[in-house]
Amino acid sequence: MVIGALVNPNNPNAGPQTRDLQAAARMLGLQLVILAAGSDRDIDGVFATLRERQIEALLVTADGFFFGLPDKLATLAARHAVPTFYPLSDYVRAGGLISYGANLSESWRQAGVYVGKLIKGTKVGELPIIQPTKFELVINIKLPRRSASTCPCNSSSLPTR
User: Fold this and answer.
1) Which candidate, 30, 39, 32, places its Cα nearest to that of 53?
2) Are 84 and 73 in contact (CB under 8 A)?
């Protein structure tokens, strides 16, 4: 199977993201095609070439530029009929197929806890470094009914969030 990974080459994390994705693809026996897009025009071009590159699915990497385009990315994925996986649930709310990533509500709650501690006098250096511990898998169970794709599972048993 050929998987595309949409990566912003302007992001300093693009190199490490790409290396990690390539290692995971090799372990799973998948062919990975890195698709660089750092502008709106680049994104349009990437989607226009998916078929000729024989890309069967697309993974959108976590990137601030892409975070601002959930509607555009979900619309293009639907138009080109490519199953697309996203890092945030905002993309699924915009019509995308599936997302897996940190629960942003929990992250914002934790940020509020940090602010509260700072207001009470805790020094920045005394605050622990915290990484997300709550993640969410969000599947758009309405999308398979609207498109030609099929869901290999019983959609009534899937969580709505």
Assistant:
1) 32
2) yes
